[in-house]
Amino acid sequence: GRARGARALFGRPVMAGAFAGLPSRRIAAGSCSSSRSCLASSRRGFAGGSPLFATTPAMATSQRLRRAGVVRAKPDFGDRIIASVPYLLPLLDGLRYGRFFFKEFPQTYFLLAPLQPLIKVYYTLPFASLVVFFALYYGIVNNYNFSRFVRYNAMQTILLDILLIVPSLVENFILRDIPKTGTYLQVYVSFYNFVWLYVLVCVLYGVAASLAGEKARLPGVADAADRQVPM
Asked: In whole angstroms, what is the distance from residue 34 CA to residue 121 CA?
């Protein structure tokens, strides 16, 4: 009975793409030496023809590392601390966009109390932002004595800080002449709050991931940081 069932299954062409919308691949009779090889061929038919099973470059690299027995160790504690410090740069530069948020939620400002001395020095010294910017770029990103984990996170903070130029241009050239009353005021406040919350969430996520030894991928800058920081 099993032999007849096997002949009935494998003695005629089998459609590997039985689902609608998936390209089918015919497995000719006699091309399979066993039921296991036919099943493997069917799976390859699904994986090769359907976008649902498409392999991304990151997945391919991960699979190669697993096959080679390579396990990526997490960064040591010192690297985690160093990688989290540069996130202060976009936080300090984006702080001015939080003025309306802090007026509406004044209790949240106390969360920045430990940074008050640093904030005061940062906004008092001339060109402090520019000095820190180039210090991060030349002192960490281009310094191969640091691990790629540290350099990648430093590059992300630099790109996030550069990204703050966009809301600055919008404020200076578009929102500068609008009246600060009524609906226009609401637009102005919403714009500030959006920029501040974006920066705050990115910074909190970046610091948390760095301290955990994980690779943070900030929206809008992660891919560019990957390209800018070689292995």
From this structure: 74
Token reading at 150: 């540290």
With CA atoms as reference, report the closest residue to 225 among 133, 168, 150, 169. 150
Instruction: Please state, in angstroms and rounded to a whole number, the distance separating the CA atoms of residues 5 and 14.
Output: 14
Name the token pair of 223: 């891919």
pLDDT tens column, 87-125: 999 999 999 999 999 999 988 888 888 999 999 999 999
Neighbours of 132 (CB within 10 A): 21
Candidates 118, 98, 117, 116; CA nearest to 108 is 98
Q: Which residue has the tokens 């793409």?
A: 17
User: DSSP 3-state assignment of 15?
Assistant: strand
How far apart (Å, rounded) are the C-alpha atoms in residues 123 and 185?
Answer: 26
Give the Cβ contact number of residue 123 at 10 Å: 12
Residues 166-182: tens digit of each pLDDT: 998 888 887 777 777 78
